[in-house]
Amino acid sequence: MNKPYNHTTATLALAKASFRSIMRSPSAVVFTLAFPLIFILVFGFLGGGGVKVDLAVAPGSDLQNPVMQALEHTAVIRLIKDKNNEEIQNELEKGHYAGVINIQKSGNEKPEYLANVSYSAASIDKGNILKSVLNNLMYTLNSKDLKPAVAEIRESTVQGRTYRTIDFILPGQLGFSLLSTGVFGTAFVFFNLRQTLVIKRFFATPVRRSSIILGEGLARIGFALLGAVFIIVIGHFFFDFTLIHGVTTVLNMLILSVIGLVVFMGFGFVVSGIAKSESTIPPISNIITLPQFLLSGTFFSIDNFPSWLQPISKALPLTYLNDAMRQIAFEGAGLWDVRQQILIMLIWGLGIYALAVRVFKWE
Amino acid sequence: MDQPHAIISVRNLIKNYADFNAVKGISFDVYNHEIFGLLGPNGAGKTTTLEIIETLREKTSGEIYVDGLSVDKDANAIKRIIGVQLQAAGYYPNLNLVELLELFAGLYGVKVKPMEMLEKVNLQDKAKAKYKALSGGQKQRFSIATTLLNSPKIIFLDEPTTGLDPQARRNLWDLISEIRDQGTTVVLTTHYMDEAEQLCDRVAFVESGEIIALDSPDNLIDQLISSGFERKKEVKKANLEDVFINLTGQQWREG
């Protein structure tokens, strides 16, 4: 009995209990793993193609000619054959096809073929792409044997890493997974432990309050990191998610995840303190998570937002987590390179924990 | 005769909430190795008094010593030598009984075998069950198991038998007596006078924040009789609960 009380033992016992509990909680597993994975699967299979323009081939068009062959080999263009005039007309009016092409022998020696192209007014941007592809193609075909009169273009492409949809989507999903685990998980756990007097029973033991917070935090961080590794591994091996420096990149991402999670847990503490009943937790949590879900570049780059919205986006902590995560994963940045993003997250953390200390309730 | 040793001593305890005075200057001692009952209607201040002694609640004034330790200065040392069962407390969600006991062992900083603790309260068959899935009597027995983890000198039980059927109640009385016999002091609250009469060595009646009587159940009854009190109806040698137990059997109906 005279053995000194060990606070580390108590903290670890709490962390272990909490971790077991989280692993058995369906909502935690769904929010942290299933949702992000579903989004990654959907976008993983959708993405990767870049721009595609549908070009219908009119029935009766000549198919054995250099133009058609060149079109077949143009990656941007998908040729649609075997459709009758009525179907083609229908799709053109809806803007699904960018245009229709009909190639016929001219009967003359030069030019040997005539290519009639109609564009769809319902799809002007794709029509323009098609127009420039066709012009380029015709120019190449027609000038094959000619010496350029003014200047010759010598094109080359800088070899770069392929930036796939997954490279954008995965860090965003990871960030959002951390946000929901941090906010919802923390808010529910502390609210419920308080309501069911579990915390009060803890207080009848020699455990410190800091051990309760720390134990819970450790469990949640452990769980979130497990989720992060799972998401990164699936992304990397099934969808070619880019990890420039391999394991080092993963470690950097995990450290960043911990920073993000600790900040987001601050929101959770605040929510658990201000919620009057269990049913008010989801709406309050959603007020915090949904705007970040939409405005922090989870699905689309914030550069696409109207200029009045951008300052709001640039104020949210998830924006900086997502940004830092993408730089680390795709551009191979180190943690020091994203110190500005980390600093802004830490400032958010300071603010939110200052608020949490005021509103958090133990009983 | 030996002067009994007071393991808890409460002197002039006062607890005022913003709008009412819950405890109005009560004093009493709890002796070593006894079962001490705090009796009284709801809102009389029993739970408040108990929670102040358990160091879970601040008092307004007064002095309390638990095994020589002051609740003001040595709250943490007190927590290490007491076991507390709260009224209506829940347990960490999603964990089974063994895991919950492991958690509490960690919180108390002691090494115990969870199965041995469960055997003490006859719950070894429920080791893998969740707390929520237990019957009322099993829940109370499990709560008592969590109070015994740190081999405490005193355990506090707040209405341990409320809501239990007669079999489970008697079974719990046996368990509580056993704990006392093994040398642990027990402080409990109850609404049931038959329970207090059977189980408690001494009882204190609490009414509106004051102790209005304190003695052994026998003495209190004798005092009332000597004042000329008589029951209106002749007492029979058995009561309806005896009939119930006789008809439905002594064994527990839990499983």
The gist of it:
The complex is a heterodimer of chains A (363) and B (255). With 363 residues, chain A is of the alpha/beta class.
What does this protein look like?
The complex is a heterodimer of chains A (363) and B (255). By secondary structure, chain A is an alpha/beta fold. The longest helix of chain A has 31 residues, at 165-195. In chain A, helix 12 (317-331) runs antiparallel to helix 13. Chain A has a 4-stranded mixed beta sheet with strand order 2-1-3-4. Chain A is 62% helix and 6% strand. Chain A has 2 domains: 7-47 and 164-359, no CATH class; 53-142, 3-Layer(aba) Sandwich (D-Maltodextrin-Binding Protein, domain 2). Chain B has a single domain (6-95, 149-248), classed as P-loop containing nucleotide triphosphate hydrolases (Rossmann fold, 3-Layer(aba) Sandwich), CATH 3.40.50. In chain B, a hairpin with a 2-residue loop joins strand 4 and strand 5. Chain B has 255 residues and is an alpha/beta fold. In chain B, helix 3 crosses helix 4 (114-120) and helix 5 (136-148) packs parallel to helix 6 (166-181). The interface between A and B is medium-sized, with 29 and 31 residues.
Tags for this model:
heterodimer; A: 363 residues; alpha/beta; D-Maltodextrin-Binding Protein, domain 2; four-stranded mixed beta sheet; 13 helices; elongated; B: 255 residues; Rossmann fold; six-stranded mixed beta sheet; 9 helices; 10 strands
Write the layout of secondary structure elements.
The complex is a heterodimer of chains A (363) and B (255).
Chain A: H1 7-23, H2 26-46, E1 53-57, H3 66-72, E2 77-80, H4 85-94, E3 99-105, E4 113-119, H5 124-142, H6 165-195, H7 198-203, H8 209-239, H9 247-274, H10 281-295, H11 310-313, H12 317-331, H13 339-359
Helix pairs in contact in A: 1-8, 2-6, 2-8, 3-5, 6-8, 6-9, 6-10, 6-12, 8-9, 9-10, 9-12, 9-13, 12-13
Chain B: E1 6-16, E2 21-31, E3 35-39, H1 46-53, E4 61-66, E5 69-70, H2 75-81, E6 82-85, H3 97-108, H4 114-120, H5 136-148, E7 154-158, H6 166-181, E8 185-190, H7 193-199, E9 202-207, E10 210-215, H8 217-226, H9 240-248
Helix pairs in contact in B: 3-4, 5-6
